[in-house]
Amino acid sequence: MTDDPAKPSGGGPVFFLSYARPSVSERVQGDPDRDFAAFYYDLCAALTRFAPLDRLHSLGAVSGEWNAPAGSGATDPAKDIAECDVFVPLHQERYFQNEQCGKELAAFEARVRLAGTPRADAILPVLWAPVPPQWAAAQPAPYRTGQADVDDEYLDKGLFWLQGAYPARYRQVVEGLARRVAEIAAGRTVGRVAAADLAHVQSSLRQADRQPLVVVLLAPTLHRPREAAGRQFGPAITDWAPFSAETSRPLADILVGLARDKGWEPQVVPFSTEDARLFGETEPDSQVVLVVNPLVVDDDIWRAALQRFDRIDKPWIGVVVAWDPAGVPDAELHRLRAELQRVLDRKFARRSPSLRINAPIATSLQSFDLALDATANHTRIQLANHLLSPASDPAEEENHT
């Protein structure tokens, strides 16, 4: 390298890893950077298989926030950002709230803009942990392996979760990422520049507008079915208060606050057989979550409507089941669960393993909050997949009822 840190050396790192260091409170317990460091070294090791021999002396560099040991790659972040070929931000909620990360990203984005033939793929995000949609929507989509079973878990739970829970799939993501980093670096997509003064760079991380989320409610009213009369129900579907033991407020009111806390801008509507979002053939413009009370399967009209809905292949519409089973005999609980899964076979019974774990039937306000969040984020991924590679118009399967 040259003695002047402001000038490009011609031998910069293949990639620069940008991440937000854990908070002070988290630093008290053990090594707060251990998991990030493990990923960094794993990526470097995997990259040795794909990078040219003349690049092996400088594979990676890492954010200056990492208080790493000597020789680990934690050098001058401004110089490394000015000379690296690929910028790898680790997306998690903390990343989008970190001023230093925003400055690092802005410095590399400036290089992309100055490139003769700008290539946005020189910024290759990795989803470290799930992030609220208002931040994710404003950034490049996270790296994907192209293997559906791996990507479903990785994009739903994040690479950090895979690192501990499924090491084999974690290694698949890391190896694929290393291959992609090498491909981008080989193309020299952005030119090297003089190091920026990060202290005076304006962060490019700004909270984006909230993403729209339509929540459709389907529950009995006082008159449908007859057994539904009680404090949980009212004249309209939106009067439904499934967790009346905890609060008398209708779910339609409560979930607005829950969704907004997660970064969504929710619109709550009652179920209708005329709703084009559920039954039409137009392209979707937002994620949709249908929240269902199991008692509706005993009503012939709603049951038929749900069966029709389930036959239509719209993966960007998720289903959350919510109710308070207090006082309901076990035999009745089992019957309703079986009937609901029979009626919503595609949408509920055949959900992904991650949703089966994270979005079971919600029987409390807390479990509903978790189920709504998990389902909304899953539908966000499904909608993104559909918009990236739209298939033919949604069609109904035959002979499924």
Give a written overview of the molecule.
With 401 residues, the chain is α/β, with parallel strands linked by helices. The protein is built from 16 helices and eight strands. It has a four-stranded parallel beta sheet with strand order 2-1-3-4. A four-stranded parallel beta sheet has the order 6-5-7-8, covered by helices on one side. Helix 3 (77-83) packs parallel to helix 5 and helix 7 (148-157) crosses helix 8. The chain is elongated.
Whole-number average pLDDT?
Answer: 84
- What shape does the CA trace take? elongated
Distance between the termini: 70 Å
Number of helices: 16
Q: Which stretches are low in confidence, meaning pLDDT under 50 for 5 or more residues running?
A: 1-9, 67-74, 397-401
Q: What oligomeric state best describes the polypeptide chains here?
A: single chain
Q: Helical amount among residues, as a percent range?
A: 40-55%
What share of residues are in beta strands? 5-15%
**Broad structural category:** alpha/beta
Major β-sheet, in short? 4 strands, parallel
Strand order, main sheet: write it out. 2-1-3-4
Number of distinct beta strands = 8
Please give the radius of gyration in angstroms: 25 Å
| Order of SSEs | EHHEHEHHEHHHHEHEHEHEHHHH
